[in-house]
Amino acid sequence: MSFEWPWQYNFPPFFTLQPNVDTRQKQLAAWCSLALSYCRHHKLYTLDVMEAQESPVFNNKKIERKLSMEAIQVVFEELRKKGNLEWLDKNKSRCLVMWRRPEEWGKLIYQWVSKNGMVNSVFTLYELSNGDDTEGEEFHGLEEWMLLRSLQALQTDGKAEIISMDDGKGVKFF
Amino acid sequence: MDRFSWSNGLLEINETLVIQQRGVRLYDGDDKAKMDVGAALLSTHRLIWRDVKNHECCIAMPLSQIIFFEEQAAGIGKSAKIVIHLHPAPANKEPGPYQNSKYSYIKLSFKEHGQIEFYRRLTEEMTQKRWENTPVSQPIPAGPQAGRTRAVGIVGIERKIEEKRKETDKNISEVLQSKSFEILKNVSWWVKISCTGPECKMVEVSRSIANKIKEKQGDISEDETIRFKSYLLSMGIANPVTRETHGSGTHYHLQLAKQLGDMLQAPLEERGGMMALSEVYCLVNRARGMELLSPEDLVNACKMFESLKLPLRLRVFDSGVMVVQLQSHSEEEMIASALDNVSEKGSLTAEEFAKLLGLSVLLSKERLLLAEKMGHLCRDDSVEGLRFYPNLF
């Protein structure tokens, strides 16, 4: 299934940061949703700002427009404010993209657990993300840091507890 | 050098400028003339020389005075020259800077080069002898005493103005005989602004011209139109409000604002209700002729529009561009038209929009920016320039 670009992607002004405040808000909202859906479609979890500039998301070769570095930073900052992005370094050159926030992932995992009646059982993290049982689930193949974050979120809600095991980490659902 | 006579530097009716060269020094024979460096002008009828600093200082001689001329190459520390040998001055010659001269030739010394082209054009004119086919209008004697006397200072300037006006009078009556139609709209405006003054006579003349033209509706050469326009422009405002007549300060600006209000109405309507302040400045000063306005005074006067309840407004755009606009000129309409135009074309740059509306680029850009500010348009700022699109966001 190929990625479906939003209509804005072929609209040249989309690639210029709009000076009008209202217009800019709408523009940024569109950028955020495009960036997230793109990452989701391609299962991207980390982004490099330098690379991002060359990626098709921010560079539309067909209409010969690309989003400037500054504008990309603005979009990323907007994503960070919404809780979908975290910087990995102080220079803001690499970031984690969370097209689903940890709480949302946690919820998905917990739904699966309770649906399969496995509350009160213990899983290894590997089992959850790469096990045969979870195949076909959305969180299958989730990166470990992300998985850990989601489980931590569940833990704060009191729905799970992360346990340290000899060969890595495990989790118990309540 | 005694062949030269004083001139006002203006070309006559049938005279056209052929070439002009800066940085030319005159020599009376082999001696440096007592004048500074200036510009040498060659017309179809005359050789004219004008002082570079003092434009009032201008001398001319008819080309028919020339016997022959030759080039003198440049040397070390010497500029190239053209030596012009001349017939003796006619007895009825008007006065010039030299009463008499022991030389029968002059030299043009080209400090800033250009002698080659000047020489070529001079040769052309001398072979064509265009002055013989199209004689210039005969100058009318200025006053009872024959021949003009050179006066300095204010008297001189006044006399010069008087002369110029007489000439204009005559020229207009000449144009009267030819046909013209394009000028009408301009005439009406100029008539309006000058009919309060003591120079009403002038106005009458131009009005009658306007009527005649209206009747004839014939074709007129572009050349004539332009010339006639320039005459009308030089008439201008008959009794301009000046610091002398109205003192300085607020009162002066108030009066000035009223006058501006009257004279700007028509040109503003013609230009779609808005003019850049710089454009207004040029227009006003052209109309005033002598009593020029300073930019500050103009701005101050424009600021008075509102308190005087005049139908004009000074408007300052966010970018700092100042314009004078008609009060009736509504912003909503302006924005709506900008949006319409952009929607129709898909996208527009300020230049394209300007062409479409016949506005200046500066003003058309302000309109687009305004529409953008109101959220109707959005921009695409790329290497190809700034384009505006309908705001689809």
Automatic annotation (TrEMBL), chain A:
<comment type="similarity">
    <text>Belongs to the VPS25 family.</text>
</comment>
<keyword id="KW-0653">Protein transport</keyword>
<dbReference type="Pfam" id="PF05871">
    <property type="entry name" value="ESCRT-II"/>
</dbReference>
<dbReference type="GO" id="GO:0043328">
    <property type="term" value="P:protein transport to vacuole involved in ubiquitin-dependent protein catabolic process via the multivesicular body sorting pathway"/>
</dbReference>
<dbReference type="InterPro" id="IPR008570">
    <property type="entry name" value="ESCRT-II_cplx_Vps25-sub"/>
</dbReference>
<protein>
    <recommendedName>
        <fullName>Vacuolar protein-sorting-associated protein 25</fullName>
    </recommendedName>
</protein>
<dbReference type="InterPro" id="IPR036388">
    <property type="entry name" value="WH-like_DNA-bd_sf"/>
</dbReference>
<keyword id="KW-0813">Transport</keyword>
<keyword id="KW-0963">Cytoplasm</keyword>
<dbReference type="InterPro" id="IPR014041">
    <property type="entry name" value="ESCRT-II_cplx_Vps25-sub_N"/>
</dbReference>
<dbReference type="InterPro" id="IPR036390">
    <property type="entry name" value="WH_DNA-bd_sf"/>
</dbReference>
<dbReference type="GO" id="GO:0000814">
    <property type="term" value="C:ESCRT II complex"/>
</dbReference>
<dbReference type="GO" id="GO:0042803">
    <property type="term" value="F:protein homodimerization activity"/>
</dbReference>
<dbReference type="GO" id="GO:0016236">
    <property type="term" value="P:macroautophagy"/>
</dbReference>
<dbReference type="GO" id="GO:0005198">
    <property type="term" value="F:structural molecule activity"/>
</dbReference>
Automatic annotation (TrEMBL), chain B:
<dbReference type="InterPro" id="IPR021648">
    <property type="entry name" value="GLUE_dom"/>
</dbReference>
<dbReference type="InterPro" id="IPR011993">
    <property type="entry name" value="PH-like_dom_sf"/>
</dbReference>
<keyword id="KW-0963">Cytoplasm</keyword>
<comment type="similarity">
    <text>Belongs to the VPS36 family.</text>
</comment>
<comment type="subunit">
    <text>Component of the endosomal sorting complex required for transport II (ESCRT-II).</text>
</comment>
<keyword id="KW-0813">Transport</keyword>
<dbReference type="Pfam" id="PF11605">
    <property type="entry name" value="Vps36_ESCRT-II"/>
</dbReference>
<keyword id="KW-0653">Protein transport</keyword>
<keyword id="KW-0967">Endosome</keyword>
<protein>
    <recommendedName>
        <fullName>Vacuolar protein-sorting-associated protein 36</fullName>
    </recommendedName>
</protein>
<comment type="function">
    <text>Component of the ESCRT-II complex (endosomal sorting complex required for transport II), which is required for multivesicular body (MVB) formation and sorting of endosomal cargo proteins into MVBs.</text>
</comment>
<dbReference type="GO" id="GO:0032266">
    <property type="term" value="F:phosphatidylinositol-3-phosphate binding"/>
</dbReference>
<keyword id="KW-0175">Coiled coil</keyword>
<dbReference type="GO" id="GO:0031902">
    <property type="term" value="C:late endosome membrane"/>
</dbReference>
<dbReference type="InterPro" id="IPR036388">
    <property type="entry name" value="WH-like_DNA-bd_sf"/>
</dbReference>
<feature type="domain" description="GLUE N-terminal">
    <location>
        <begin position="1"/>
        <end position="138"/>
    </location>
</feature>
<dbReference type="GO" id="GO:0043130">
    <property type="term" value="F:ubiquitin binding"/>
</dbReference>
<dbReference type="InterPro" id="IPR040608">
    <property type="entry name" value="Snf8/Vps36"/>
</dbReference>
<dbReference type="InterPro" id="IPR037855">
    <property type="entry name" value="Vps36"/>
</dbReference>
<dbReference type="InterPro" id="IPR036390">
    <property type="entry name" value="WH_DNA-bd_sf"/>
</dbReference>
<dbReference type="GO" id="GO:0043328">
    <property type="term" value="P:protein transport to vacuole involved in ubiquitin-dependent protein catabolic process via the multivesicular body sorting pathway"/>
</dbReference>
<dbReference type="Pfam" id="PF04157">
    <property type="entry name" value="EAP30"/>
</dbReference>
